[in-house]
């Protein structure tokens, strides 16, 4: 999950000498909200689409007055890139090597595709939102409860910590989801929400949709 695996090496950065119109066109062609800016080989920061649009109405637009300097290295993970995207409200983060040489960019869609292909997202299973006192939270205990019902834990995600409680989203593959929920509650967990989705449900939905199309051609 290092950024080096997802770099778009052909991503074209902007140059300080380019006009706002040229930079905006380049941004739209690459479908990004920000553009890494360079003066010769020197990285000077990232320019947003919003600032570029404002620059169209200025007689003397100086991009260095508006750039934000964020980036990741090829030795950081996609989680670092995702954190940057969230913090700077961008769908692109430039990537550099440890010698500060520009390598390309990592894009938000690639990170979405990466996580969407994991078992936690892609596999069929039951999704449960649990709430537990933060001091009692144990990922080992969660896994043990799931596996004690001959079920498989596909993944877990800590969503938020509010005061003294933590909410955890888990996904399991099980034919006994009700018993798992009851066991969690016996161990002090609150089952806030649960949603069950499996292959049988998908098959029934497909057949139902086909029936509706047959009735209403």
Features:
217 residues; alpha+beta; CBS-domain; Alpha-Beta Plaits; 10 strands; CBS_dom; CBS_dom_sf; CBS domain; CBS domain containing protein
Verbal overview:
The protein is an alpha+beta fold. The protein folds into two domains: 112 residues, CBS-domain; 79 residues, ACT domain (Alpha-Beta Plaits). It has eight helices and ten strands. A four-stranded antiparallel sheet has the order 8-9-7-10. Strands 1-2-3 form a three-stranded mixed sheet. The protein has a three-stranded mixed sheet with strand order 4-5-6. A hairpin with a 2-residue loop joins strand 8 and strand 9. Helix 1 packs antiparallel against helix 2. The chain is elongated and about 65 Å long. It starts with 13 loop residues before the first strand and ends with a helix. About 2% of the residues have low confidence.
| CATH structural class of the largest domain | Alpha Beta
CATH superfamily of the largest domain: CBS-domain
Architecture of the largest domain, according to CATH?
A: Roll
- Measured by DSSP, the beta-strand proportion falls in 25-35%
For the CA atoms, what is the radius of gyration? 24 Å
Largest β-sheet summary? 4 strands, antiparallel
The general outline is: elongated
Please give a quick description of this structure.
By secondary structure, the chain is of the alpha+beta class.
Write the layout of secondary structure elements.
Elements: E1 14-15, H1 20-30, E2 34-39, E3 42-48, H2 49-55, E4 72-73, H3 78-88, E5 92-96, E6 102-107, H4 108-116, H5 119-122, E7 125-133, H6 139-147, E8 152-162, E9 165-173, H7 177-186, E10 190-197, H8 199-215
Parallel strand pairs: 1-2, 4-5
Antiparallel strand pairs: 2-3, 5-6, 7-9, 7-10, 8-9
Helix pairs in contact: 1-2
């Amino acid at each position: 999950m290092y950024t080096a695996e997802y770099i778009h090496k052909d991503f074209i950065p902007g140059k300080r000498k380019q006009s706002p119109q040229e930079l905006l066109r380049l941004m739209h062609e690459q479908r990004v909200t920000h553009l890494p800016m360079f003066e010769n080989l020197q990285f000077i920061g990232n320019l947003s689409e919003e600032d570029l649009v404002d620059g169209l109405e200025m007689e003397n637009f100086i991009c260095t007055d508006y750039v934000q300097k964020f980036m990741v290295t090829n030795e950081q993970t996609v989680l670092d890139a995702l954190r940057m995207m969230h913090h700077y409200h961008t769908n692109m983060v430039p990537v550099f090597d440890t010698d500060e040489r520009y390598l390309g960019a990592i894009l938000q869609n690639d990170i979405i595709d990466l996580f969407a292909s994991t078992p936690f997202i892609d596999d069929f299973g039951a999704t449960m939102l649990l709430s537990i006192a933060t001091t009692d939270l144990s990922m080992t205990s969660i896994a043990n409860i799931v596996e004690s019902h001959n079920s498989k834990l596909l993944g877990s995600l800590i969503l938020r910590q509010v005061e003294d409680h933590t909410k955890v989203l888990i996904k399991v593959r099980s034919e006994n989801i009700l018993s798992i929920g009851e066991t969690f509650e016996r161990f002090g967990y609150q089952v806030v929400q649960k949603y069950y989705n499996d292959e049988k449900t998908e098959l029934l939905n497909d057949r139902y949709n086909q029936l509706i199309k047959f009735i209403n051609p």
